[in-house]
């Protein structure tokens, strides 16, 4: 699992930061999942290591323009590129109508299937490897955050040891990999637990924007390996944060601390903290680290590989 930040500014783009979008790359299945798609996202993708042809799912948090204005253009480009795969899009009420109107008035016809799924709290997607959940946040419009959970995988199967025990290669290996006990022709009973290492514990990622500090963010971020949380304002500008229902750097850190997360990456910064101003992004980082030490700042095109978890470190 690898996270690439395609846009880290709030509201409007700046010279160094585009508006909201991140890509979650799943190399083992050659898929990319996008979270939000602000204006210019497809240009950012062209400048990154992300392949448009691998985009399979797009998750939209809410209907503000800095999170959706790039969506129609990206989908149109996917069609022109001959994307043969279906793209599933998850978002709040109105997203389907918005895309239909854009398609109708721009005379855009997609050459591949698109399916829009309306938000609901809880599990919104699940397959053999991943579960995606969403939870309502607190913003000026209906907004949701997301949590991606990688399912636990069986540990490494020691094929060399199996051969040394005289176990013939074939279907028996599959049963042992699943932890079953087999009986060999000579009467020996062999348990798969003797040949399979500890489970590889699945990783967890939370994406929380736009929102003020709320219980929904904490629930999404619980025990997460990485929490991506908006930090639009500095702590001294908390009054504006409350008025506009956005988070400060200290609110983002408090979410990560309360959730017992491992790493916090802050994003969605107001342009008021650009270099040269009274306060800048480094000040927000210092504020957050005073509460949650393992905090990082997102920059456009930052790529963050999510490290594997140590075996047997499941949360309670």
From TrEMBL:
Q: Can you state which reaction this protein catalyses?
A: Endonucleolytic cleavage of RNA, removing extra 3' nucleotides from tRNA precursor, generating 3' termini of tRNAs. A 3'-hydroxy group is left at the tRNA terminus and a 5'-phosphoryl group is left at the trailer molecule
- Could you give a GO molecular-function term held by this entry? zinc ion binding
Q: What keywords does the record list, in alphabetical order?
A: Endonuclease, Hydrolase, Metal-binding, Nuclease, tRNA processing, Zinc
Gene3D superfamilies named among the record's database cross-references: Ribonuclease Z/Hydroxyacylglutathione hydrolase-like
The organism's place on the tree of life at top rank: Bacteria
Record flagged with keyword DNA repair: no
Q: Which InterPro entries match?
A: Metallo-B-lactamas, RibonucZ/Hydroxyglut_hydro, RNase_Z/BN
Q: What is its EC number?
A: 3.1.26.11
Q: Which residues form the active site?
A: 66 (proton acceptor)
Where does the sequence pass through the membrane? none
- Kindly list the positions annotated as binding Zn(2+) 2: 66-67, 210, 268
The Swiss-Prot or TrEMBL record lists the needed cofactor(s) as: Zn(2+)
Q: How does it assemble?
A: Homodimer.
Q: Which HAMAP family match?
A: RNase_Z_BN (MF_01818)
The family annotation for this protein states: Belongs to the RNase Z family.
This protein's name: Ribonuclease Z
Q: Upper lineage ranks?
A: Bacteria, Bacillati, Cyanobacteriota, Cyanophyceae, Oscillatoriophycideae
């Amino acid at each position: 699992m690898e996270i690439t930040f395609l846009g880290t500014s709030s509201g409007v783009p700046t010279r160094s930061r585009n508006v909201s979008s991140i890509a979650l790359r799943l190399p083992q299945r050659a898929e990319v999942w996008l979270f939000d798609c602000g204006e210019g996202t497809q240009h950012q993708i062209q400048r990154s290591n992300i392949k448009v042809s691998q985009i399979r799912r797009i998750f939209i948090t809410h209907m503000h323009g800095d999170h959706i204005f790039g969506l129609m253009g990206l989908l149109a480009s996917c069609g022109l590129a001959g994307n043969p795969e279906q793209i599933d899009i998850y978002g709040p009420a109105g997203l389907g109508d918005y895309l239909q109107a854009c398609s109708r008035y721009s005379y855009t016809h997609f050459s591949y299937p698109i399916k829009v799924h309306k938000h609901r709290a809880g599990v919104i997607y699940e397959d053999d490897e991943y579960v995606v959940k969403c939870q309502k946040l607190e913003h000026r419009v209906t907004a949701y955050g997301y949590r991606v959970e990688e399912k636990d995988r069986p540990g490494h199967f020691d094929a060399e040891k199996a051969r040394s025990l005289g176990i013939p290669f074939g279907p028996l290996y599959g049963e042992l990999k699943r932890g079953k006990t087999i009986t060999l022709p000579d009467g020996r009973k062999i348990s798969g637990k003797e040949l399979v290492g500890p489970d590889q514990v699945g990783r967890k990622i939370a994406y929380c924007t736009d929102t003020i500090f709320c219980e929904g963010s904490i629930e999404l971020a619980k025990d997460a390996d990485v929490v991506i949380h908006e930090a639009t304002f500095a702590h001294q500008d908390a009054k504006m944060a409350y008025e506009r229902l956005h988070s400060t750097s200290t609110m983002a850190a408090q979410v990560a601390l309360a959730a017992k997360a491992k790493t916090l990456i802050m994003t969605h910064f107001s342009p008021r903290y650009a270099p040269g101003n009274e306060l800048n992004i480094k000040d927000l980082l210092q504020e957050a680290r005073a509460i949650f030490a393992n905090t990082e700042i997102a920059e456009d095109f930052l790529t963050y590989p999510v490290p594997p978890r140590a075996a047997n470190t499941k949360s309670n």
